[in-house]
Write a structure and sequence with these properties.
Number of domains: 2
CATH class of the largest domain: Alpha Beta
CATH topology of the largest domain: Rossmann fold
CATH superfamily of the largest domain: Glycogen Phosphorylase B
Number of helices: 15
Shape: globular
Largest sheet: 8 strands, mixed
Strand order of the largest sheet: 3-4-2-1-5-6-7-8
Helix content: 40-55%
Strand content: 15-25%
Radius of gyration: 21 Å
Mean pLDDT: 94
CATH architecture of the largest domain: 3-Layer(aba) Sandwich
Structural class: alpha/beta
Low-confidence stretches: none
Order of helices and strands: EHEEEHEHEHHEHEHEHEHEHEHEHEHHH
């Protein structure tokens, strides 16, 4: 089968970003399928381009890198412009590449443009992959404010779903939301995944903080990620004289400089910031954390999220602490594989960290249950096969 995957944020494990598309495509190539990924230059990826389009082969995956830079530190207007640049330039490949199935992976929702070009003009089967509820998230966060743009975005979302042979949501919550609003769509759930062998193999650790002395946040440092909440918890730990527990940020984002200034101004000395690092280097930090904290802004739209860091942290055998109130909360409660806290109450986070630090057996048992669950439900090869079954179902 010939598969074309439109995804603007492609990265391998040598980058500092999620590797779902890379892992899935690599597995499909191994099974004999022809896979082409059309992507752009993302600041957290390891892929670069020197020409307008750089053609590369990554472990059998044909990758076309469009030389349009996207960076989370760009303004909202600049990012939206890069979305449209990518969508328009990638439409050339939608019209020219041979394919049996085309996957358009959103957000942003504009990735539906090349997908629809392939569907309408080349009669390709289109699978729309909803990584989050876009544009709903942008509307709730205030990124999209114009009524005209909001109406246009929701109209385009409807066009994408109604013209897709299948819609794949990255969580049961996303699947349920789309199915409720578009009852005629064929909607499946294939969550984010973890490279089990990478995260379970012990890695050397040479960090500046002692093992099991820090709660780790890794990834984008921005408004969606509710980063201020971690500083509030750090202040409470400081107030309670728990200098044996630190907060460690690894990543970049629009709020990083602002958070570092607040740390300096308020003397929150138990917070450390590190820069982006390749996933292969990040593993040791995750494995040696007291807990992995996954906060998201407390809005209902984010209760459907499928954050990659959740699955990777569980695979590493580390207790996870998260703030969403939807399917993840239900899942980790069912399997006793982590903890859910209220995103408005940082004292809950501080108290759980103290409890984990004072009860190593609790931390170890929770992490072990998470690792077992990750192996059963979130292995990259297992989920790649689940998605491949969807792609084959309507050939």
């Amino acid at each position: 089968m010939r598969i074309t995957y439109f995804y603007q944020y492609f990265s391998t494990s040598e980058g500092a970003w999620g590797t779902r598309v890379y892992e899935f495509a690599k597995e499909w190539v191994k099974q004999g399928h022809d896979v082409t990924v059309v992507t752009s230059v993302y600041s957290k990826s390891d892929l670069k381009a020197k020409r307008l389009v750089s053609e590369q082969v990554v472990e059998g995956i044909r990758v076309k890198v469009i030389n349009v830079l996207i960076d989370n530190r760009q303004s909202a207007i600049k990012r939206m412009w890069t979305f449209f640049q990518y969508a328009l330039l990638s439409s050339w490949f939608a019209l020219t590449l041979k394919a049996d199935v085309v996957i358009a992976s959103s957000g942003p929702i504009t990735v539906g443009i090349p997908g629809l070009m392939a569907r309408w003009f080349r009669r390709r089967k289109l699978v729309f992959e909803a990584r989050d509820l876009w544009p709903e998230g942008a509307v709730k966060m205030g990124v999209l404010k114009s009524k005209t743009l909001i109406n246009l975005a929701y109209w385009f979302e409807k066009i994408c779903y109604n013209n897709s042979s299948a819609v794949i949501g990255l969580s049961p919550g996303i699947q349920q939301d789309i199915q409720l609003r578009f009852p005629g769509a064929n909607v499946y759930s294939v969550t984010n995944a973890a490279n089990i062998s990478l995260f379970t193999t012990p890695q050397p650790y040479t960090g500046v903080l002692p093992p099991r002395s820090y709660a780790l946040y890794f990834g984008n440092i921005g408004q969606v990620n509710h980063s201020e909440y971690l500083l509030d918890a750090a202040k409470l730990l400081k107030k309670n004289k728990r200098d044996d527990i630190n907060i460690l940020f690894i990543g970049e984002g629009q709020l990083k400089a602002q958070l570092k200034k607040r740390v300096a101004d308020e003397n929150i000395y138990n917070v450390t910031f590190l820069d982006l690092m390749p996933k292969s280097s990040l593993v040791g930090y995750i494995q040696n954390a007291l807990a992995s904290v996954i906060p998201l802004k407390p809005l209902p739209v984010f209760d459907t999220s499928s954050p990659n860091k959740l699955f990777e942290s569980m695979a590493a055998g580390v207790p996870v602490i998260q703030t969403t109130q939807g399917w993840i909360k239900e899942f980790i409660e069912k399997h006793r594989a982590g903890f859910t806290v209220n995103g408005h109450e940082p004292e809950q986070l501080a108290n759980i960290l103290i409890n984990l630090k004072d009860n190593p057996a609790l931390a170890s048992e929770t992490g072990a249950r998470g690792a077992a669950v990750a192996l059963k439900f979130f292995d990259k090869d297992y989920l790649a096969d689940q998605m491949l079954k969807v792609l084959k179902s309507f050939r």
